[in-house]
Amino acid sequence: MTPHEPMVFSQAVEGLLRALGSRLDDTAKDHLAALGLNVRHRLEPAYPLAIWTQVMRYGSTLVAPTASPSEQMFELGRRFVEGYSETIVGRAMLTALKVLGPRRALERMSRNFRSGNNYTETKLEALGPTEFKLWFNQVKEPEFYRGMLSAGIDRSGAKIVEVHTLTHDATGATFSIKWT
């Protein structure tokens, strides 16, 4: 690990594993081990972003095997929020989201994501009281983020949440977020 290598912390990995639930059978565990995540042993404190990305891609095929790749990632992102809420760090963060409400939760997005990794940066632009543009750096799978945002904003108390990917390139991704 280099000092500035993007790393995903064990609590985020644990949240993803919890999102997989019963789909995490022996075959899946073997496949994850081949990707660099041996779930039969204690989790490492952090994993490189490259391993996390491969694990996400494989995990998405487990949660929605008959869906398109983008639908698989969206579903995994939604389920990740539920799985993360079962971790100690995630439980505290998602409880705070309910207290903060959707707008303030978005304003704290960099801090929220930094509980799970060492690299996330965000920029938020308000377009109205319940309409925002949110940019993230280092987005490998925008549909995963779209699913996380949709579930997270919903859990913060928003109703009828709409999240759309506006742009995605090597520098990151921008999302449109609206709710009623």
Description:
The chain has 180 residues and is an alpha+beta fold. It folds into two domains: 78 residues, no CATH class; 78 residues, Alpha-Beta Plaits (2-Layer Sandwich). 51% of the residues lie in helices and 19% in strands. The chain contains seven helices and six strands; from the N terminus they run βααβααααββαββ. The strands form two sheets. It has a four-stranded antiparallel beta sheet with strand order 3-4-6-5, with helices on one face. Strands 1-2 form a two-stranded antiparallel ribbon. A hairpin with a 2-residue loop joins strand 3 and strand 4. Helix 1 packs across helix 4, helix 2 packs antiparallel against helix 3 and helix 5 packs across helix 7. It is globular, with a radius of gyration of 16 Å. The protein starts with 6 loop residues before the first strand and ends with a strand.
Write the layout of secondary structure elements.
Layout: E1 7-9, H1 10-20, H2 26-35, E2 46-48, H3 49-63, H4 69-84, H5 88-107, H6 109-114, E3 122-128, E4 131-137, H7 142-155, E5 162-169, E6 172-178
Antiparallel strand pairs: 1-2, 3-4, 4-6, 5-6
Briefly, what is this?
This protein has 180 residues and is an alpha+beta fold. The protein is built from seven helices and six strands; from the N terminus they run E-H-H-E-H-H-H-H-E-E-H-E-E.
Spans of 5+ residues with little confidence (pLDDT < 50)? none
Shape: globular
- State the domain count: 2
Number of helices: 7
- The radius of gyration over CA amounts to 16 Å
Give average pLDDT, whole number. Answer: 95
Strand-and-helix sequence, N→C?
EHHEHHHHEEHEE
Major β-sheet strand ordering: 3-4-6-5
Structural class: alpha+beta
Alpha-carbon distance between the two ends: 43 Å
Main beta sheet strand tally, sense and closure: 4 strands, antiparallel
Say how many strands there are: 6
